[in-house]
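Cast an eye over this sequence plus tokens and explain the fold to me:
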Amino acid sequence: MRRYILGLALAGMAICIASPARADCRLPAAPSKVPDAATANQEEMVAAMQTLKHYGIDVTNYCKCLEFETSQNRLSVADQDRLRNLAIDGLKSITDKFNEQVRLFKSKG
């Protein structure tokens, strides 16, 4: 009987160690497109800016969620850093693309 209980305990520990940390945070979807400055009008550029602002808020909330999950020991610090960096890199990438289109849009008058 002791062997059986010890075996179950070891199996349970192995499952816990082997399974990745589970966090309930969901990475927000990035805006699907950035308006082309050559063809976009003022309204499209403003709408894209608003969408990007909302995406930035969503990324901030996602990072706060990761922080909370880490504080609850459901996510390792290393995983939190990795996931946060991926989210911020995605935000920076789409923001850089949008800013380039804004510069082009403003330069055309």
User: Anything to note?
Assistant: The CA atoms of residues 30 and 55 lie 7 Å apart. Residues 23-107 form one domain.
